[in-house]
Design brief:
This protein has 205 residues and is an alpha+beta fold. It has helices at 2-32, 38-63, 76-91, 112-129, 147-152; strands at 72-75, 95-101, 107-110, 134-145, 159-168, 202-204.
Length: 205
């Protein structure tokens, strides 16, 4: 793990140098496009993509212990709505993306970059699990976790919580490997492709 941490830190440092050039050229392009120019929106998408990539480098640096994560008070719905266009492109036109977001959702304390990465990973997995198309659903809701329910969950105290659920109509996860899904480097994907499990709809929360 120490060696992996060093590698992650080195990759993040080099990647940051590349991103610095991207941000610089984006600024130059924006100077050439007025507010009404339709190409300006495309350049802004490049900038937003670079910002998300910068968030990934922060996570790599945090993993290598060269930079701490930056949790703050955020609105989960705002993060999801901001990610929706990217998620739609990621899952492709054959997969329908539906959002069911609680309007009065509570705020949470989290690193927004990490939350975005979780959503992207789940979307990529959903896409791979539905090669023939399907539906990916993202839902938020406020939940009051009682003492009885908290006792059935791990490391959770009773109280008010925000629940984020992501579900798809693709293949599910076999029972024999479910206990491994939270291992950092565990995957069922073949090198260069995805391995689909023909079981039941999968859900992640």
């Amino acid at each position: 793990m120490e060696a992996i941490g060093r590698l992650a830190g080195g990759v993040a440092h080099d990647f940051n140098n590349v991103l610095t050039a991207i941000f610089g050229y984006v600024d130059l392009l924006l100077d050439n496009f007025g507010p009404a120019d339709p190409l300006r929106a495309d350049v802004l998408e490049i900038e937003h993509g670079a910002e998300r990539a910068a968030g990934l480098t922060r996570q790599l640096l945090a993993f290598s212990r060269r930079q701490v994560l930056q949790p703050r008070r955020i609105n989960v719905n705002e993060v999801i709505n901001g990610m929706a266009p990217l998620l739609g492109r990621l899952i492709g036109s054959d997969v329908e993306l539906t959002l069911d977001l609680e309007p009065a959702i509570g705020d949470v304390r989290a690193d927004p970059g990490q939350l975005e990465q979780v959503l992207m990973n789940l979307a990529a997995n959903a896409r791979d699990a539905m090669p023939e198309g399907g539906r990916m659903s993202v839902m938020t809701r406020n939940e009051d976790v009682t003492t009885e329910r908290a006792n059935r969950l791990t490391s959770l105290a009773p109280g008010q919580f925000v629940c984020l659920s992501v579900a798809d109509t693709g293949a599910g996860i076999p029972d024999e490997i479910q206990r491994q899904i939270f291992e950092p480097f565990f995957t069922t994907k073949d090198q260069g492709g995805a391995r689909a499990w023909d079981l039941r709809p999968s859900t992640a929360s």
